[in-house]
């Protein structure tokens, strides 16, 4: 949490960010057909323009504290939920900070990949859609089954009762 806060301060005060000047969203997918400016503190522009977005990094700092106290009180499910939401908030904070850049290039800012010029062809996207429709339910069901099987606490009594099954 402290590192997350320090990283936010570092981005605001010490790192030059990228600003997209021109990009034709309907144009061809070419990373060189855009204008990019490098400005101090530009990675924080989305938070300055839309202060409501600050809720996400704030939750990224508050939720780990709530997870810690929930676990201290023995509320493991609530602690797990808060820890999971913490990870989501940190990832969303990075996404909001970088948007529309997906892979900024410090060597050649003009060559940075944005959401618009890092897309794929229609055929590739259709193939990926079919693959996702098949495999995502399998992965989700397996994950739910795994969590169901691992639900509950393991203590010394559980180990004694199941001494031939747990290892």
From TrEMBL:
Compartments it resides in: Cell membrane
UniProt keyword annotations, A-Z: Cell membrane, Membrane, Oxidoreductase, Transmembrane, Transmembrane helix
One GO cellular component, as annotated: cytochrome complex
Broad class of enzyme this protein falls into: oxidoreductase
Full protein name: Cytochrome oxidase subunit II
UniProt-recorded Gene Ontology molecular function terms: electron transfer activity; oxidoreductase activity, acting on diphenols and related substances as donors, oxygen as acceptor
Topology with respect to the bilayer: Multi-pass membrane protein
Sequence similarity: Belongs to the cytochrome ubiquinol oxidase subunit 2 family.
InterPro entries per the UniProt record, alphabetical: Cyt-d_oxidase_su2
Main location: membrane
Transmembrane segments: 52-72, 79-103, 123-145
GN (gene name): appB_2
Biological process (GO), any one: aerobic electron transport chain
The enzyme's E.C. designation: 1.10.3.-
């Amino acid at each position: 949490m402290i590192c997350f806060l320090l990283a936010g301060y570092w981005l605001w005060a010490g790192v030059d960010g990228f600003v997209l000047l021109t990009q034709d969203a309907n144009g061809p997918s070419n990373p060189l057909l855009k204008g990019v400016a490098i400005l101090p503190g530009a990675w924080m522009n989305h938070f300055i323009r839309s202060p409501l977005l600050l809720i996400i990094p704030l939750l990224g700092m508050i939720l780990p504290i709530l997870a810690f106290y929930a676990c201290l009180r023995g509320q493991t499910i609530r602690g797990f939920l808060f820890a999971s939401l913490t990870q989501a908030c940190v990832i969303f904070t990075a996404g909001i900070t970088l948007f529309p850049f997906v892979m900024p290039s410090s060597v050649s800012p003009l060559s940075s990949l944005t959401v618009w010029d890092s897309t794929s062809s229609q055929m590739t996207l259709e193939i990926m859609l079919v693959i996702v429709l098949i495999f995502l339910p399998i992965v989700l069901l397996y994950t739910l089954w795994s969590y169901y099987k691992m639900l509950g606490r393991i203590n010394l009594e559980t180990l004694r009762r199941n001494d031939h099954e747990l290892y």
